[in-house]
Amino acid sequence: MTAELRIALLGAAILGTAAAGVAAAVPATTASFATGPTSARGGAALVSLPGYGARGTDVLDYRDGAQVTLAVPVRNTGGFEVTVTEVALELARHDLLSQVSVTPARFSLAPGETRTVVVEGVLGNCRYYHEREVRSYDGVRVGFETLGGSGSRHVPFVRPVVVHSPMIVGCPDRKLDREAVNRRDG
């Protein structure tokens, strides 16, 4: 082995060790995000009520079976580039709003950069709610990868999105007996 080859291998080993050290020194906990104002289009209207609640509220008008598109700006507020691997509504069983897809599914964000994510959803499951119930969606879960690892964060919306369960005439599968169907059922 020549001296030049030994020096090149030694240099590569030193650079590899330094890169691993930098990656270990940048913990995934440094990743942070923020959202911008949410907008909607499709079969239901989104109405902003700035005076309702501490941050205001966005009310999504329930229309059974309506397809809804939510545009959610996601901003990297951290100091390092991240790859966003998932953006998802934080949903419970039989929610009034169900997520169908998200576009783009995976993307990179430099520090300070914003990308609008399109969340496709459908309104349904009103039979599990009575007409005075609301379901509030406070934010999204953002999965990410960065130099120091991976993780996920709950990222609050600028204003929570609220879906109000409709009256019985707006919910084709609701029973008059409120105990007939509940969210614990099928």
Structural commentary:
By secondary structure, the protein is mainly beta. It has two domains: 1-27; 31-170, Immunoglobulin-like, CATH 2.60.40. It contains one helix and eleven strands; from the N terminus they run αβββββββββββ. The protein has a six-stranded mixed β-sheet with strand order 3-4-11-10-6-8, with no helix packed on it. It is elongated and about 85 Å long. Residues 17-27 have low confidence and may be disordered.
Summarize the structure.
The protein contains one helix and eleven strands; from the N terminus they run αβββββββββββ. The protein has 186 residues and is mainly β. The strands form two sheets. A six-stranded mixed sheet has the order 3-4-11-10-6-8, with no helix packed on it. Strands 1, 2, 5, 7 and 9 form a five-stranded antiparallel sheet that branches.
Lay out the secondary structure:
Blueprint: H1 3-25, E1 33-35, E2 39-42, E3 46-49, E4 57-60, E5 67-76, E6 82-89, E7 97-103, E8 107-109, E9 114-123, E10 134-146, E11 149-164
Parallel strand pairs: 4-11
Antiparallel strand pairs: 1-5, 2-5, 3-4, 5-9, 6-8, 6-10, 7-9, 10-11
